[in-house]
Amino acid sequence: MGDERYVENCTDKELLETFVKPTIERIFKPGEIDDARLVRSDRDLIYRITVGGDVFYPIVRPHGNGFSVESVGQQFFDDVQDDVAESYFAWGELRGE
Hints:
alpha+beta; four-stranded antiparallel sheet; 34% helix; globular
């Protein structure tokens, strides 16, 4: 059974622990990330990741209600995995499998 919580009912720290950190540890090599931080956009909470000249902006907390932690966590993983595969530093690598 998956995580049945909704992102609007979770703290930023809970979301970081539940799916952001595990995704980062699974996809990136130790020491590879130059900077990573939570950033608020106009509508969403994103996790800005910088690796060399590449910058990624996967969504941690989408605007609106009714998004499950499980679905947002899976989308976060998919977005980071796709971004890395299309990046300069890891072109063509499918990481996290």
